[in-house]
TrEMBL record:
Reactions catalysed: DNA(n) + a 2'-deoxyribonucleoside 5'-triphosphate = DNA(n+1) + diphosphate
Compositionally biased region (Low complexity): 148-157
Similarity comment: Belongs to the DNA polymerase type-X family.
GO biological process, one term: double-strand break repair via nonhomologous end joining
Full protein name: DNA-directed DNA polymerase
Extent of Basic and acidic residues compositional bias: 339-354
EC class (word): transferase
PANTHER family the record matches: DNA POLYMERASE LAMBDA, DNA POLYMERASE TYPE-X FAMILY MEMBER
Length: 577
C-alpha cells in the first residue's frame, strides 16, 4: 500500500524546514498505513450519535486523503473521538499516558473533516483543553504544528456540519400560544396525542375528499394542540378556546372528545369502506387523492380491483413508456396521474419552473408505471427503522464521494425529527466548494443516480430534476436545487423510497430546513417569512421580497436568525399529527 498522501500538500512542502508531525501508526513499522484508524469513545454520546459516527467512519473511504476505519483499540488509533471533556471521565476509558500520545478530538472534527474533504487541524477541536497541545502535535492533518493560523477550519465554506450532540437547546422565546408553528415547540408525541390522532383522521378524510379549506383548518388546529403543553381537561377549555386557529367547531370536537373519549365522526370515517379504500390506494406510489377517488368511482375497493383496473391498460402503458425519452419521466413529458405525488412534492417545495429534461445516454433506469407501483407496494408500505436509514445514508455518502469527493450530506425528513420509523429517506447533499456557485453540485444528481443504478442500489427513478432555468422573478435562486426521487435497495433488503436533494452551497441550509419538515412547520415558516418579515423562504433560498436580495445562511441556526426566529431543534418541529 502506498504511503498516505497528505492533504494540503502545498503547506507541507512550504514548511519542510519546520518540525515534522508524527507519522501515522503502521502495523509492521515500515511505511505508514493509508487508512486513518479512528477510535470512538461512546460515553456521553447517544445511541443515534454513536451510530451516525460509526456510519460516517465506516463508510468514509472518500479519497486518498480521507480514508477512515474504526479500530476497537485506543492504542491502535490515529485519532480518538470523544464528547468527554473532563480528564477524570476520560480516564475511565483511556489511560492518561496513552491519551497524551494521541489527538483527542470532538466529533465535530470528524464531521468537519468530511465536510471539508480533508483532514482538518485538530487544535480547534481538542476535546480536553489540558490536552490541547498534545492533540495539535499528534494531529493527523497535513499541517505543521507551529502554524497557528492553519489550525482553524476553512472559513470559505458554508458547509461546516456539526454533530447532533452539539445542537443548541431550544430557544427560550418559543411560545405555545403563537399562531405560527415555527415559533412553537412541537414534540413528536405530545401530551394530547390520542386526541390529535382522532382529529388527524378527520383531517385526512377532508384531504382525500378534496376539501382543502377544512383540511387546512385541521392542520392548524392539530399544530396548536401538538404544542399545547398541558393535558387537556374541562378546566382548560377556556384557555384552549383563546388560542389561535381553535374556533367554535374545533372546541365542540374537543368537548365531545373530553366527554366520550372519542369523536364520533372520526370513528365513522375510520370504519367507512370509502375512507379505507382511498387511504389504501394513496399508499400506492404516485396515486394521489384525485386518482384514488377516480379508482373508487370506477368500482375499485381493494388492491385486487386496482390490479384488474390497470391490467386492462398495460398495453397503453407500454406505449406511453415508449414515448418517454430514455425512460426518464420529467414534469414536462409526464402526464400520467402516477406523477401526481412527486409533482405535489415539487410544488410544495416551491419549484415553480418546470425543470429542464435531463437525458441519460445510458443506462435506462426504469420509471414507475402503474404495474410497477403495484409490484412495489408490499415493500414501500413498510416503514424504515432508524438503523436502516443510517445504513442507506452511509452507502449513499460512500457512492457520492466516489462520484464527487468532499461532498457533505444530511439526513432530513421525519428521521431528523426523531421518528423511529420513516416512510422514506430524505437526504440533502451539498459540496463545500463555493466557486463557481453550484458547480460542484450541478449534474451530480444524474451522475450519482447512474452510479447507484449500475451498482444495483437504485432500481427505479421516479423523477429527476436539474437545476432550474433562470427565473426573472427569482434570479438569485435559479440554480439552487436538483432532485432525484428514487427506489433504493440495500443488497438483499426491502426496496425503499429515497429522495436525494442536491443543493448549491448557498442553498444548503435552507434545503436542510425546508426538507426537515414537518409539513405544517414548513408552511408556517413560509407564512411567517412573508407576513412578518417581508421575506420569501423556501427550500431553495431566502430572499427579501422588496428587492429580491438573496440572504445566504451559513448554518441552520443562521436560517432561523435571518428569519428573526428563535432556534427550534428538529425534534421539536413535529407540528403535524
Ligand atoms: N415537505 C413539505 N410539504 C409537503 C411534503 C414535504 O414541506 N407537503 C417537506 C417537509 C417534510 C419533508 O419535506 O418533512 C420530507 O417529506 P416526506 O414526505 O418525506 O415527509 P417526512 O419525512 O416528514 O415523513 P415520512 O417519514 O413519511 O417520510
Ligand atoms: Mg421522509
Amino acid at each position: 500500500m502506498s504511503p498516505r498522501k497528505r492533504s494540503r500538500s502545498s503547506s507541507i512542502s512550504s514548511s519542510d524546514s519546520q518540525p515534522r508531525k508524527r507519522q501515522r501508526s503502521s502495523s509492521d513499522g515500515s511505511e505508514p498505513d493509508k487508512r486513518l484508524k479512528v477510535y470512538i469513545v461512546q460515553a456521553k454520546l447517544s445511541a443515534d450519535e454513536v451510530a451516525s459516527l460509526y456510519a460516517l467512519v465506516d463508510h468514509h473511504s472518500v479519497n486518498e486523503s480521507l480514508d477512515f476505519e474504526l479500530t476497537p483499540s485506543p492504542r491502535d488509533a490515529d485519532v480518538i473521538v470523544t464528547a468527554v471533556h473532563m480528564r477524570k471521565r476520560l480516564e475511565r476509558h483511556i489511560d492518561w499516558a496513552l491519551a497524551k500520545e494521541k489527538p483527542i478530538v470532538t466529533p465535530d472534527w470528524l464531521f468537519n473533516s468530511v465536510s471539508a474533504g480533508e483532514l482538518l487541524p485538530c487544535g480547534k477541536f481538542a476535546a480536553l483543553s489540558e490536552l490541547h497541545d498534545e492533540t495539535v502535535h499528534n494531529c493527523p492533518d497535513g499541517d505543521d504544528d507551529s502554524d497557528t493560523a492553519a489550525s482553524s477550519p476553512p472559513t470559505d465554506s458554508l458547509l461546516h456540519l456539526r454533530s447532533p450532540s452539539q445542537e443548541p437547546a431550544a430557544s427560550a422565546d418559543l411560545d405555545w400560544k403563537s399562531r405560527y408553528a415555527c415559533c412553537r415547540a412541537s414534540p413528536l408525541v405530545c401530551v394530547n396525542q390520542h386526541l390529535v390522532s382522532r382529529l388527524a383522521i378527520i383531517r385526512r378524510s377532508r384531504e382525500l375528499e378534496d376539501d382543502k379549506i377544512s383540511a387546512l383548518s385541521y392542520d392548524h388546529a392539530i399544530g396548536m394542540i401538538k404544542s399545547y403543553p398541558y393535558e387537556l381537561t374541562e378546566d382548560r377549555l377556556n384557555e384552549v378556546n383563546s388560542l389561535p386557529h381553535i374556533g367554535p367547531k374545533m372546541i365542540s370536537r374537543i368537548e365531545e372528545y373530553l366527554d366520550n373519549g372519542d369523536i364520533e365522526e372520526a370513528e365513522t370515517i375510520a370504519n367507512s369502506q370509502r375512507y379505507q379504500s382511498l387511504e389504501a390506494f394513496t399508499d400506492l406510489y404516485g396515486v394521489g387523492a384525485t386518482t384514488a377517488r377516480k379508482l373508487y368511482a370506477a368500482g375499485c375497493r381493494t388492491f385486487e380491483d386496482v390490479e384488474r383496473y390497470y391490467g386492462v391498460s398495460y398495453e397503453d402503458e407500454a406505449e406511453e413508456e415508449a414515448d418517454l425519452d430514455d425512460g426518464l419521466k420529467t414534469e414536462e413529458t409526464d402526464d400520467l396521474h402516477l406523477a401526481s405525488q412527486h409533482n405535489d412534492r415539487a410544488s410544495q417545495h416551491n419549484d415553480r419552473k418546470p425543470p429542464r429534461p435531463l437525458r441519460f445516454a445510458k443506462p435506462k433506469i426504469p420509471s414507475i408505471t402503474p404495474r410497477v407501483a403495484l409490484d412495489l407496494r408490499d415493500d414501500l408500505d413498510q416503514r424504515i427503522p432508524r438503523e436502516e436509514v443510517q445504513e442507506i445514508f452511509a452507502v449513499i455518502v460512500r457512492e457520492l464521494n466516489a462520484v464527487r469527493p468532499g461532498c457533505v450530506a444530511t439526513i432530513v425528513g421525519g428521521y431528523r425529527r426523531g421518528k423511529s420509523l420513516s416512510g422514506d429517506v430524505d437526504i440533502v447533499i451539498g459540496h463545500p466548494n463555493l466557486s463557481p456557485t453550484g458547480k460542484q453540485v450541478k449534474g451530480l444528481s444524474s451522475r450519482l443516480v447512474e452510479r447507484l443504478y449500475e451498482r444495483g442500489l437504485v432500481t427505479h427513478l421516479m423523477y429527476l430534476s436539474g437545476f432550474h432555468a433562470p427565473d426573472v422573478t427569482r434570479a438569485a435562486h435559479w440554480d439552487a436545487l436538483e432532485k432525484a426521487l428514487t427506489v433504493f435497495v440495500l443488497p438483499g433488503g426491502v426496496r425503499r423510497r429515497v429522495d436525494l436533494i442536491f443543493a448549491a452551497p448557498e442553498a444548503y441550509w435552507t434545503a436542510v430546513v425546508g426538507w426537515t419538515g414537518s409539513k405544517t412547520f414548513e408552511r408556517d415558516l413560509r407564512r411567517w417569512a412573508a407576513e412578518q418579515k417581508e421575506l420569501k423562504f423556501d427550500s431553495t433560498g431566502l430572499t427579501r421580497r422588496s428587492n429580491g436580495e438573496l440572504l445566504v445562511p451559513t448554518s441552520e441556526e443562521d436560517v432561523f436568525r435571518l428569519l428573526g426566529l428563535g432556534w427550534v431543534p428538529p425534534t421539536l418541529r413535529n407540528a403535524d399529527a
